[in-house]
Amino acid sequence: MMDSTEVAILPVALNVIGLLFLSGVFSGAETAFTNLSPARIEVIKNDGKFASNLMYRLYQKLDMVISLSLIMSNGVNIFLATYLTIFFTTVFGIELGGTLSASVGTVLVIIFGEILPKKIAILYPIHFSRATAHLLELLRILTFPLLLPIQLINKGMDTMKPLNEDQERVLLEEEIHATLGIGHLQGALESKEYEMMKQLLLLNDREVKEIMTARSEITAIHADSPVKDLLLLSADKNVSRVPVFTESIDTIDYIIHTIQLAPFLTDPKNLDRPVIDFCSTPAFKIPETKILDDLFFEFQRKRLHMAIVLDEYGNTNGLITLEDIVEEIFGEIEDETDELEIIIERIDDITFRAEGDATLEQIEPLLNLEFPEEFPKHKTIGWLILNIIHRFPEEGEKIRVPETNLELEVVDKDEEYIDKVHITILEDTIEPEETPTE
């Protein structure tokens, strides 16, 4: 055993630090690249930086990056373990030195070669990937003969896919749903934005029969009915497109748009002519099992707005419009002819019931007050509750609005949306700030 003074500590420490740094770089690079998403890579590849473009090229060879990072990381760790063994056995002897080198080396590699760099890479995957891209590209070129057989093995394993395309599509959709849910919980997406995107993704899983207007609720007219009856029906039911049948509701042959009649209404005689004389658009008929997103694109391609839904026997089962599908995504769409739904109503002198999507601007005049400036007027009462308590409320939970004498009670909600809120004007006023006593 050599005297410890015969061994220069500083060079050894610097070498160990350097090896740990390299171990952390390669370990972190693997984590950083695997935490990048295809969407994020597509965004940053065009930022004009050479390193970003290099990142993109390396990401296209992710298997190679993982293999290279693992090889280099393990190689550095083996070299570090050997170096520490030589140092400790030289200073403390074989028995004690072997124990110390194994213990110290393991702790150092776990903390500084694995945990810390991987944590940094998870927090800053883009920066870490960009910083290591040049080094990885250089090593890829230098170690190409070593990586080649590994790449061939990877390609061979890629052919052994356990999932078919449909299963992969389902998994991808689940990942997108999970990502949207995380974005909603973290506040990146408001409730309405989250609901809209979720409904959009669900279109390819839902059938027409789930949202169609039922057979019993269809507004239709007989082909032999006079035009004046059509106009009266259109005005009474507040519809502009009307199915036209010949014998019964099961024999709808045409869809007539009342605007088509405008050029003919200058002659009063046309009011008594049968509707069939003015029909030119054949009814578009679909099975009740048709998928909503397929129908949406078919409507778009054929420039149609209405379809007749048939059951398995070919009988009329319902009716669906383009607006029905759009409302599934964006919610209820009202025009100037729709009756306005009451979203705020008075219960008694101090209590009001409001829909969760009622805006603060709509509520203020009824309550004869103004909300604090920190709450934008265009935001909803549901948003206000989430902003105050920073979590999703329980049904029946009461929330006091800061700087006001208002109390909000959640009276109806589903898993991810506040439906109805009771707003109570409390008798006590806002407590004044305490003034110091002399």
TrEMBL record:
Residues 5-194 form the CNNM transmembrane domain. CDD domains: CBS_pair_CorC_HlyC_assoc. The chain crosses the membrane at residues 7-29, 64-84, 91-113. GO terms for molecular function: flavin adenine dinucleotide binding. GO terms for cellular component: plasma membrane. It comes from the Bacteria. Gene3D superfamilies: 3.30.465.10, CBS-domain (3.10.580.10). It is a multi-pass membrane protein. Residues 279-336 form the CBS domain. Keywords: CBS domain, Cell membrane, Membrane, Repeat, Transmembrane, Transmembrane helix. It holds the Pfam family CorC_HlyC. It is found in: Cell membrane. Belongs to the UPF0053 family. This is HlyC/CorC family transporter. It comes from Candidatus Dojkabacteria bacterium.
